[in-house]
Design goal:
Number of domains: 2
Order of helices and strands: EHEHEHHHEHEHEHEHEEEHEHHEEHHEEH
Strand order of the largest sheet: 3-2-1-4-5-12-13
CATH class of the largest domain: Alpha Beta
Oligomer: single chain
Helix content: 25-40%
Distance between the termini: 38 Å
Number of strands: 15
Strand content: 15-25%
Length: 413
């Protein structure tokens, strides 16, 4: 008798995570081993609370569901930031999860997410081994931060990078209309890794050199050096545009701007306000017009300008993960391996999910300028292939037509 599957999404959303979900659903629909695929609402908490929707039935009722899903922003199944405890200290969650797996005749559990989601997948894999369960546990990567190890890059990053570069280019056009000296600061997501902020350099072209300054978390930040950099750039240009990661730190490792008393369940500092901090610094010390822009969630939900390369790779990872599980594999994460940059060619590999969990891939120091205020051509060329191609979005009443998420809206009411 064939078995069923559960798929869930966790962590922060991206413009491509639903494409990975579509890939999982399509592969299960094509499978001779798996029957029904259930969607767990709000990550692993949906499994704990028996909160599911039948994705197989939804597919049968809509001919273009997977197409629309692949191009829809955020997370169709909802998300959570729930940390499973150490099973040696408290295994009650694990018992409930695996009891649900048995009740629904589950043969595989697919978890789409970032570092913390891979932690959940690794813990479930270890517990399954202890109790002798044959449920296959599979991780599928996503994060706009591009900070997962054991993969060339992560789905979601390419689309966010395309949005960042486009936004910086558009801000440059806006900034240069005035002769008055001014500074514009774009605060970009990236708590521990500066990949997304580095993507701002893609905005540069033959007539435009913005952002003139880029600051990443990988290099210690100095207010003194920052003011010197700004003054130097103002000697040659009236209008300066600066890209800065939300997670920049000083030489002691302290975040430039964060709420030290506020941390999430995984212990991560809750960051905010670095753009405003630097804006005020420039106004006070240099005395010119300065404004800051925090792109915030727009970086991860701008599906109207997503990368076709990113969407295609996300779908392929989901599909390939199902196929690899059918061969009897468990405890792995589907991974992207780059074969060539020019032309861009990549293939899917599979890595131990425990090797990925709770680790961070930083931007290499040699891909950052010696002064720590710009990025190298090598880094730009690494990112450039990932933003290529435009998705075909259907419109309704002048707006993009996305997948119906009423199940999430009613669920939270």
């Amino acid at each position: 008798m064939n078995t069923n599957c559960i798929v869930a999404q966790s962590g922060g959303p991206t413009s491509a995570i639903n494409a990975s979900l579509a890939g999982v659903i399509k592969a299960i629909n094509d499978s001779d081993m798996y029957d029904t695929v259930y969607g767990s609402l709000h990550g692993v908490t949906g499994v704990l609370n028996d909160d599911f929707i039948n994705l197989t039935d939804i597919c049968k009722s809509s001919d273009d569901f997977l197409i629309c899903l692949s191009c829809s922003p955020a997370m169709f199944l909802g998300s959570c930031r729930y940390k499973l405890p150490d099973h040696e200290k408290d295994n009650s969650d694990y018992k409930r999860i695996f009891n649900t797996f048995e009740k629904l005749n589950i043969g595989a559990f697919f978890y789409i997410g970032g570092n913390d989601s891979m932690d959940t997948a690794a813990k479930l894999t270890a517990y399954a081994k202890i109790i002798g369960s044959d449920v296959r546990i599979v991780g599928i990567p996503k994060t706009i931060d591009n900070d997962l190890i054991c993969t060339d890059h992560t789905p979601g990053f390419g689309s966010a990078a395309k949005y960042i570069a486009t936004s910086i280019l558009e801000m440059a056009h806006d900034t240069f209309i005035y002769e008055l000296q001014s500074v514009t600061i774009a605060e970009i997501m990236g708590r521990d890794a500066g990949w997304l902020t580095a993507a701002s350099a893609l905005a540069r072209n033959k007539y435009n050199d913005t952002p003139q300054l880029i600051y990443l978390p990988e290099v210690a930040f100095s207010f003194e050096n920052f003011l010197r950099d700004v003054r130097e750039k103002l000697r040659n240009s009236n209008n300066i545009l600066i890209a800065v990661s939300e997670g920049i730190r000083d030489k002691s490792g302290e975040y430039i701007s964060c709420s030290k008393s506020s941390r999430d369940i995984f212990g991560h500092s809750q960051l905010s306000g670095v753009g405003k901090t630097l804006e005020q610094l420039i106004k006070n010390e240099i005395g010119i017009k300065c404004r800051s822009v925090e792109l915030n969630i727009l970086q991860r939900c701008a599906s109207h300008i997503s990368s076709k390369t990113d969407i295609n790779e996300a779908f392929n990872l989901g599909y390939s993960a199902v196929k690899h599980s059918e061969a009897g594999n468990t405890g792995f994460m589907a991974s992207i391996c780059r074969d060539s940059t020019t032309p861009y060619v990549a293939h899917v590999e599979y890595v131990d999910v425990a090797e990925v969990a709770n680790k961070v891939k930083s931007v290499p120091r040699n891909w950052i300028s010696p002064a720590g205020n710009d990025v190298s051509d090598e880094l730009v060329e690494y990112i450039r292939p990932l933003i290529q191609g435009e998705t075909e979005t259907s419109f309704e009443n002048g707006l993009p037509r996305y997948t119906n998420i009423s199940h999430l809206i009613s669920h939270s009411a």
